[in-house]
Amino acid sequence: MKNRKTFVTAVTTAIMLTMLAPQAMAETAQGAAVVATVDMKSAADSFLQQSAGEYGFKSDLSDLKHVSTTDTKAGSYVRYQQTVDGADLFYHQVTVTLDSAGTPLLITSDYVPNLTGSKSKGRLSANEAEGKALGHNKVKKTKELVSRVFGYTVENGVAVPVYKVTALDADTHSNWETFINADNGQIVKNKDLNQKASGTGQVFLPNPIASAGTKVGFADNNNADSAALTGQLKTVTLLGLDGSGYLKGDYVYAKQSSANSYSATYTYNYTRSSKHFENVMVYYHIDSLQRYIQSLGFTNINNRQILVNVNGTTADNSFYSPSNKQLTFGTGGVDDAEDAGIIAHEYGHSIQDNQVPGFGSTLQGGAMGEGFGDYLGAIWEDKLIAPSTYGNACVGEWDAMSYNSGGNPPCLRRLDNNKVMPGSWYGEVHEDGEIWSQGLYEMGKQLGVDTATKIILQSHFSLTSSSGFNAGAKAIKTADQLLNGGANAAVIDAIWAARGISTL
Fold first, then answer.
1. Of 34, 35, 414, 491, most Cβ neighbours within 10 A?
2. Averaged pLDDT, 471-494
3. Which residue has the higher pLDDT, 495 or 19?
4. Radius of gyration of the chain (CA)
């Protein structure tokens, strides 16, 4: 197929005559000559017929349906739709560009010549196709009538009969375009047509204490603003917004019943005293974490829009719920969603549940889940404050000001307490998670954070819901074998041996 090839043509008198009305010249009563208006479609038709051999068009243009002719001061554009047995071959068109005198200059073509395969009308009805499309996208109520159009699409050079079903979800505002195979009912293509937008907002990177490199001068003071806290706000780009004006995009929907942030200009600049501020924090950090995971080569780990109930509980606690796949952040003490380490920790639970549904059904498995969450929170904080080392091996510095203000820095938990198995085993998942998190964090220090995180994420696929420390360490070593040919085996063995955990 050729696209956007420019032609320099010598238009002969004979060709020009085909572009003129049957009577090219007429005499007025006064005898002055008047040139008839050029028929742009006829000119375009002639040019396509001349170019049929080069593009594979049928000589009679019988499968090209005229769609429109657009005239401008500079020139005209004649558009055609390719068809199969009279029905549209979706998204395969041809345009001809002509100058104001009617001289053809350019053909732009998506035309597919010599189509083979089924040209049946299919066995599904339009109603059946609509039901399959709405079910696939979990659309319970549409905002307007659903469009169902029969036509064809191309798969490996074959014309496949399909229904193009377009529906606007009244609840999510997603505008789905779904192609249903009209023969077997399978989903051929599925896409949200809403245009993605980028916005801007203010956030902590990752929290005010870590970015300032000190806890001095910072206090929660019942969610009040201060010069010190406002001074730590950073302007960031918010990617993947769905265009609705809300903080809702490809990977996260940050929502509060009392403060569901909206901006027609996609500008979300709040200070931390505003309830909207936590919405921006959640959107930016979860969206960025998912993009980081995909940058490591994983497109199948929690690659979805997660609903987050921001400030959804007054408790000094946050949680992931496997039953509804949602996150909830609490407002007790420092609002949890003001600290990127806490956001990343909770997102870690969602990641593991996505990779291994039901993960953490044993005490060791639960400790691994808490340890992975702490690892994700710690390395995310480290990345955002590099090259500073303040707060390394510590997670949740700002959140911890309300319950561990004596620490320097204050920490939710640390990843360098040198806990080992079996002597440090306590029987509580958060305490014992520090055994697991230190092993992961040591991998990050010795192998590099990106390499370690890729190995760790890869290893999760090997686990079961009841896996414990030994299974986890063996899975990590196996993941390194798959990703790196076992190049890091000796380092991995030593790291986990130091924690009293065998990789064998």
1. 414
2. 96
3. 495
4. 31
Residue 4's pLDDT is what? 30
Q: What is the pLDDT of residues 121-174, one digit of tens each?
A: 678 999 999 999 999 999 998 888 889 999 999 988 889 999 999 998 887 777
**Alpha carbons within 13 A on the beta-carbon side of 446:** 17
Query: Does 204 lie in the same domain as 169?
Result: no
User: How far, rounded to the nearest angstrom, does the alpha carbon of residue 418 sit from its chain's CA centroid?
Assistant: 38
What's the domain range around 465? 195-504
Residue 423 has, within 13 A of its CA and on its CB side, a CA count of 6
Residues contacting residue 138 through CB under 8 Å, at least 6 positions apart? none
Could you tell me the CATH number of the domain that includes residue 159?
3.10.450
CA nearest 335: which of 155, 160, 208?
208
Query: Quick check: 169 and 116 in contact, CB under 8 A?
Result: no
For residues 417-430, average pLDDT = 97
* Average pLDDT of span 235-243: 95
Taking Cα atoms as reference points, which of 176, 108, 120 lies closest to residue 150?
A: 120
Total Cβ atoms within 10 A of residue 235 = 10
Q: Backbone phi, then psi, for 503, in 5-degree steps?
A: -95, 5
> Residue 337 carries which DSSP code?
G
Backbone angles phi, psi at 133, to 5 degrees: -65, -45
Q: Which residues contact 273 (CB under 8 A, 6 or more apart)?
A: 223, 224, 225
Which band of pLDDT confidence, cut at 50, 70 and 90, is reported for residue 200?
Answer: very high
Task: Let me know if residue 119 belongs to a domain.
Answer: no
Q: CB–CB of 19/96 below 8 Å? A: no
Phi, psi of 125 (to 5 degrees): -90, 165
The per-residue b/e assignment along 2-17, b for 16 or more CB within 10 angstroms, e otherwise, is eeeeeeeeeeeeebee
94 and 139 both lie in a single domain: no
In this prediction, residues 72-97 reach a mean pLDDT of 93
- Mark whether 58 and 182 lie in a shared domain: no
- Asked if the peptide bond before residue 422 counts as cis, ω within 30 degrees of 0, the response is yes
Residue 70: CA count within 13 A, CB half-sphere: 8
DSSP at 82: E
| Total domains in the fold of the chain | 3
Q: Would residue 222 count as lying in a domain?
A: yes
As a whole number of angstroms, the distance between CA 368 and CA 363 comes to 9
Amino acid sitting at position 487: A
Give a yes or no: residue 118 inside a domain. no
Q: Tell me the DSSP string of 134-174.
A: HHHTT--SBSSPPEEEEEEEEETTEEEEEEEEEEEBTTT--
